[in-house]
Specification:
The protein is 43% helix and 15% strand. By secondary structure, it is an alpha/beta fold.
């Protein structure tokens, strides 16, 4: 266990924000974004779209604000939204979810993740994530006083080694946090790996928290919610949000579903974090979840085309590209350019060619950071013309680096 004086230090350390001497640093996203602004670079570092979602839902939210939806919503979320979430789970995955007590609306998926970890993890409890890992996992595990263990995802396919997965579990394991589709690698987990997670969680009596915010953003593969596997539902908290599927990341409306006893615990913690979330947005989110299936499939298809534009640009720059199967992100290896340190290159690229990316090492503990030191993550959830321009700029990287 860590020996920090205050919980915030454990949280910062868990998110790789503390230097070896204990000083608090800025996130790599803030650092790279500052450089991108300074050099007027195309920022492919942070995963947010540069266009909003459908206007009809924006108008609904605006009507809520100009009308009378400006006070607290119920702590669990308005019933029409909880019903829409339950209907969505049934429609796409065949899951029967009771909107009365098996759904809680949260302030984005990030709050749902935090509430789930804080609800069940105590000092010394072990929590498994896959590495590289989304930084909020490490932060909240640290805040809870938990011990963060990782299972490595290696290129080219970023799939877990089953033996490594089995070795990570023991009698102290309290929870495994799954991110599927996976940020930052862009991989999706196959049924074999998911079934092994369920079997191990069952054997060791631990919980599964499944972050599925990219559930509808897969390319050529179907998303498999782990809660649909035999034996999984009773120990799984499934999390998603409106942000990624509908390009409304600033609305911060997410949700958690699962057995009533687990959702009650998450709701109890959420109640003392934000209590209530985005009242005016909730009816619009409910309507969005009822969109025709063609909206979901069309958006994913379009996003897949954008990923290919960027992939070709990265390859033209001389990088080795690992094409994603989902999410907003693509991973590339800068080693063929003569760089063994993507962090160093990421700090230079905004000025060199006017493009920004994020080193994969920041999503890892020290050993994992060394293993991924030549890998960089880029976001392709941008306008096609912007990605084309980014690809053109990237094609000049080898010459710029060589110079």
């Amino acid at each position: 266990m860590s020996t920090f004086d205050f919980p915030w230090q454990r949280m910062a350390a868990g998110a790789n924000l503390l230097s070896p001497n204990g000083d608090l640093g800025v996130t790599i996203f803030e650092e790279i974004t500052t450089l991108a602004v300074k050099h007027q670079a195309i920022n492919l570092g942070q995963g947010f779209p540069d266009t909003d979602g459908p206007k009809v839902y924006k108008d609904m939210a605006a009507q809520g604000i100009s009308g009378d939806l400006n006070q607290y919503a119920p702590g669990s979320g308005i019933l029409p939204l909880r019903k829409a979430i339950a209907d969505h789970q049934k429609r796409f995955y065949g899951l029967d979810v009771n909107p009365e007590n098996e759904v809680v609306v949260t302030t984005g998926a990030t709050e749902a993740i935090a509430a789930a970890i804080l609800a069940f993890v105590g000092p010394g409890d072990e929590v498994i994530t896959f590495e590289p890992f989304y930084d909020s996992y490490g932060a909240t595990i640290g805040l809870a006083g938990g011990v963060h263990k990782t299972v490595t995802l290696n290129a080219p396919d970023f799939q877990p080694d089953i033996n490594d997965l089995r070795a990570a579990f023991n009698e102290r394991t309290r929870m495994i946090v799954l991110n599927n589709p996976h940020n930052p690698t862009g991989t999706t987990f196959g049924k074999e790996a998911l079934a092994e997670i369920v079997a191990l969680a069952t054997e060791h009596g631990c919980l599964v928290v499944s972050d599925e915010v990219y559930e509808h953003l897969t390319f050529g593969v179907a998303h498999i919610p782990i809660a649909t596997l035999p034996g999984a539902w009773e120990r799984t908290i499934t999390i998603s949000s409106v942000g990624k599927t509908f390009s409304f990341t600033g609305w911060k409306v997410g949700w958690a579903t699962g057995p009533a006893n687990l959702v009650a615990a998450v709701r109890t913690v959420k109640q003392f974090l934000s209590y209530s979330s985005g009242t005016a947005f909730q009816p619009a989110v409910a309507a969005a979840l009822g969109s025709e299936t063609g909206f979901f499939t069309g958006f994913a298809k379009d996003l897949g085309k954008r990923s290919e534009v960027l992939a070709k640009g990265l390859e033209a720059a001389g990088m080795t590209v690992y094409r994603p199967r989902g999410t907003y992100f693509i991973v590339a290896d800068v080693a063929p350019l003569g760089f063994d340190n993507a962090l160093d290159l990421a700090r230079r690229m905004p000025e060199l060619i006017g493009v920004a990316g994020i080193p994969l090492s920041v999503f890892c503990h020290a050993e994992g950071a060394e293993r991924t030191r030549s890998l960089m993550r880029f976001a392709f959830c941008k306008k096609p013309e912007l990605l084309t321009e980014a690809a053109n700029r990237l094609s000049r990287l080898s010459a710029k680096v060589g110079g």
